[in-house]
Amino acid sequence: MPPWAGSSDDSDGVGEAFFASGSIARGVASPLLLIGSQREWPAQAALPDVRVVATLPPPRASAYIGQVAALDIVWLADAEAVEAAIFAEICAAIDRRGCTFICETTLAALDRVAAAIPASIDAQLLVDADPADKLVALAAARRMRFVEFNDVARDDAMERIDRLQEEVARIARMLGDLAAQQGGLPGAPASFALRGRDSDDFAGQLRSPPRDFAAAPRSFMPEERTLDRQRAKQVRRMLRQRRMREHYFPADLFADPAWDMLLDLYAARLERQPVSVSSLCIAAAVPATTALRWIKTMTDAGLFLREQDPQDGRRIFIALADGACDALSRYFEALDE
User: Fold this and answer.
1) CB 270 within 8 A of CB 235
2) Nearest residue to 260 (alpha-carbon basis) of 276, 278, 236
3) What pLDDT shows up at residue 75?
4) First to last CA, the chain
5) What averages of pLDDT result for each successive group of 10 residues across the chain (337 residues)?
6) Which residues contact 16 (CB under 8 A, 6 or more apart)?
7) b vs e for 265-286, b when ≥16 Cβ sit within 10 Å of the residue's Cβ?
8) What whole-number distance in Å separates Cα of residue 333 and Cα of residue 97?
9) Are 320 and 188 in contact (CB under 8 A)?
10) How far apart are CA 173 and CA 189, in angstroms?
11) Residue 136, class by beta-carbon neighbours within 10 Å (0-12 exposed, 13-18 middle, 19+ buried)?
């Protein structure tokens, strides 16, 4: 098949299944549109639940998305090389269609690409992804589409997803216990349990209004700022100590990206500094694709917030939710006792 050949053969009944149920029927391979090159694409034998229906260049993608009878997943390779106007058209078509979006890009272009994707789209960002990461992304895309995990066979990709869920649940329980000991968690959701993308509880938290990071809060007092600086130094020292372990033990032996990101965001909040997506990925001390998956999970759990850069619309910042910040403050107060 030529590199940009297209195919929309629905002779296997996928189109009928889609229109009848509003989603791809169970047991039918999810139609996937690949935008860009197929280099390093996972072997078809490893993707029994995914069917590549077309491979198109970016300029032709948005029209195809709007016309094809059945489409479940859209995969965009080399997003950083796509013109802004074409990228916006692709995102708009995906948003209208309700497809899951998997987007590959580089770390250097991550902030720009992430800011260009509307919050209403179910999107996964991949940075320098290896074949295992791609399989995990596809498995997660199908799970989100069906709102449950289709456990056909246990493999390394499935085990990685389970470990991610268990780690987020552990952190959520820890923060909840800290809040309960101190009389509640002001400003946080009633539960940190993971919810779907359409949950009303978090509809207003996924993207908050821009904040002026240079301005002090209303309650600002010199003594409070001094305490914040001391606490920020304490958090930064803890992060440095965690990184020092990598000089003496294998780096992946103590990998804990969720906690590292929580600490980094907490220190940045005390320092009145914004944190970009790419910066937070670096602070996580894990591969960027893994860090991005954690950011999405923590955002869905209500621990992180997405904030637009008031000075540059091509970037977004990640910040702590008020409830998570309060729990971390109580945690460090308990350490000081």
Assistant:
1) yes
2) 236
3) 92
4) 67
5) 41 37 56 79 63 90 91 91 94 92 91 90 88 83 52 58 76 76 53 45 48 51 70 84 77 79 91 90 88 90 88 84 90 82
6) none
7) bbbbbbbbebbbbbbbbebbbb
8) 48
9) no
10) 13
11) buried
